[in-house]
């Protein structure tokens, strides 16, 4: 039996992570994971010994994160999004708060449009782990949802999440909208790759070493994915379609101009995230 207490293990992890420039709260999250505790239980049992097996696994993961930047979510195999847990691994992006804001913005605009009684047909482009279509389906059960990704490995993760959440999602493997060009949609959403290739060295090791580059980078200016999607939009849009993009922090005007080049009558709305950065573009399209 380990002679270390849970408190000593937590304190060691916080200090070790801080010394290596990492967020020290990751230590507590890993402790909760390996002990199977809630935070209230953790606080109640701080004076107790941690146990050899739990401590060995905990120490290994703390070192993996501190020394090599392995994301916490990869270490535990799951990530939280919109109050639900999803499987993640090296083949998909780790869900981020900004994408929750994108989904929330979609749901609010559909409600504001009075579409709560409408049969909505939606598609998510570059679905990754499937968090967007699964969340949309669970928040709006009557919605018919499809999703596309170029990566077969990512689709395996998405399908596992679909099964675990019991949602009816149709997945397609292919490039952007190509697999669904024979369909039309009321809602088209995408969090595509949008980082310029030249920005690789400026990214944290957690991102550049563990997020799939296919889901990160989009040409010299980061706009290649938007160009490809916008070029296909006239083929899949209805008389009234909501388009929702997640974007890079300085891409609002460029993405707005791309949309208006194909849909001159549209008035794309650039929306900031909670940190005050440009992060979303919403546009009502008509053909």
Summarize the structure in words.
This is Release factor glutamine methyltransferase. It comes from Pontibacillus halophilus JSM 076056 = DSM 19796. Keywords: Methyltransferase, S-adenosyl-L-methionine, Transferase. The protein is an alpha/beta fold and 287 residues long. It has two domains: 63 residues; 204 residues, Vaccinia Virus protein VP39 (Rossmann fold). It has a seven-stranded mixed sheet, sandwiched between helices. Helix 8 links the parallel strand 4 and strand 5. Helix 1 packs parallel to helix 4 and helix 10 packs parallel to helix 11. The longest helix has 17 residues. The chain is elongated and about 70 Å long. The model has no long low-confidence stretch (mean pLDDT 93).
* Strand line-up in the sheet with most strands: 5-4-3-6-7-9-8
- CATH top level of the largest domain is Alpha Beta
Mean pLDDT: 93
Which CATH architecture of the largest domain would you pick? 3-Layer(aba) Sandwich
Organism: Pontibacillus halophilus JSM 076056 = DSM 19796
Enzyme class: transferase
Catalytic activity: L-glutaminyl-[peptide chain release factor] + S-adenosyl-L-methionine = N(5)-methyl-L-glutaminyl-[peptide chain release factor] + S-adenosyl-L-homocysteine + H(+)
Family: Belongs to the protein N5-glutamine methyltransferase family. PrmC subfamily.
């Amino acid at each position: 039996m380990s002679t270390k207490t849970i408190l000593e293990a937590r304190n060691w992890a916080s200090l070790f992570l801080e010394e290596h420039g990492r967020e020290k709260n990751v230590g507590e999250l890993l402790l909760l994971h390996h002990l199977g505790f809630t935070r209230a239980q953790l606080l109640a049992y701080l004076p107790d010994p941690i146990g050899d097996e739990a401590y060995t696994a905990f120490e290994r993961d703390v070192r993996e994160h501190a020394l090599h930047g392995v994301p916490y979510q990869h270490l535990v195999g799951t990530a939280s999004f919109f109050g639900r847990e999803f499987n993640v691994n090296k083949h998909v992006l780790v869900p981020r708060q900004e994408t929750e804001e994108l989904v929330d913005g979609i749901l609010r605009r559909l409600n504001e449009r009075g579409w709560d009684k409408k049969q909505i047909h939606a598609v998510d482009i570059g679905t990754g782990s499937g968090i967007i279509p699964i969340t949309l389906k669970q928040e709006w059960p009557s919605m018919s949802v499809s999703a596309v990704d170029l990566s077969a490995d990512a689709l395996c993760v998405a399908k596992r999440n679909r099964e675990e959440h019991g949602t009816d999602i149709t997945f397609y493997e292919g490039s952007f909208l190509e697999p669904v060009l024979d369909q039309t949609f009321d809602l088209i959403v995408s969090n595509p790759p949008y980082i310029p290739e030249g920005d690789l060295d400026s990214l944290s090791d957690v991102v550049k070493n563990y997020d799939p580059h296919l889901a990160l980078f989009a040409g010299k200016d980061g706009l290649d994915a938007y160009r490809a999607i916008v070029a296909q939009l006239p083929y899949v849009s209805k008389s009234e379609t909501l388009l929702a993009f997640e974007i890079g922090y300085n891409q609002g005007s460029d993405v707005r101009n791309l949309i208006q080049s194909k849909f001159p009558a549209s008035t794309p709305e650039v929306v900031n995230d909670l940190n005050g950065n440009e992060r979303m573009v919403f546009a009502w399209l008509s053909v």
